[in-house]
Write a structure and sequence with these properties.
It is a single chain. By secondary structure, the chain is of the alpha/beta class. The chain has 7 helices and 6 strands. The protein has a 6-stranded mixed beta sheet. 26% of the residues are buried.
Length: 179
């Protein structure tokens, strides 16, 4: 479980495989573990670099003024790459991490060689979407962790593979992610 200090926080990360490095960014509420099913496909040709970003997994949970901020996470990721001496890398982001990967490419284009974004969304939701997200987050903040997991599993009831990945990698930090 390597950890490094970058951008005044401690970032936990895992590295698997050899070859051209690829930065794998996990979805919101998950951790680096969500990428385990990809090890076989990637590690023979690529080095998988998988950090838990701020608020997730074993990385620092605190945000300035206790406000979850994608731009701060992108700064963390850039500083993480700097500490590792990486100035250009392929980046894969899924769900919320697709947004983070896109912001990284916009703010620091020289760092991103190739960009893969999957199941993501725009940084600027409409007012209605923002309102729905705020209400959803408030409701989720009232529920026990086990109930949140059980609700998520209902969406994937026909997909035991995804259920397993979510159960093994989910690391929701309420005070950071649900505001």
């Amino acid at each position: 479980m390597p950890k490094i200090n970058a951008n005044s926080i401690t970032i936990h990360y895992e590295i698997k495989g050899q070859g051209t490095p690829i930065l794998f960014l996990h979805g919101s509420g998950a951790s680096w573990k969500m990428w385990e099913p990809q090890f076989e496909a990637f590690t023979s040709r690529y080095q998988m670099l998988m950090p838990d970003y701020r608020g997730h997994g074993d990385t620092t949970k605190e945000f300035p003024i206790n406000k979850y901020d994608h731009h701060i996470i992108v700064e963390d990721i850039k500083c993480f790459l700097d500490v590792l001496g990486i100035s250009k890398i392929h980046v894969i982001g899924v769900s919320q991490a697709g947004q983070l990967a896109t912001l990284l490419a916009i703010k620091y284009p020289t760092y991103v060689d190739k960009l893969v974004v999957s199941n993501s969304y725009s940084e600027m939701p409409t007012i209605a979407a923002s309102w729905v997200l705020s209400i959803s987050n408030f409701i989720f903040s009232l529920l026990p962790y086990s109930t949140i997991i059980n609700i998520m599993m209902k969406f994937y009831k026909e997909d035991p593979y995804t259920q397993r990945i979510l159960r093994e990698s989910f690391s929701l930090i309420r005070r950071c992610c649900l505001q």
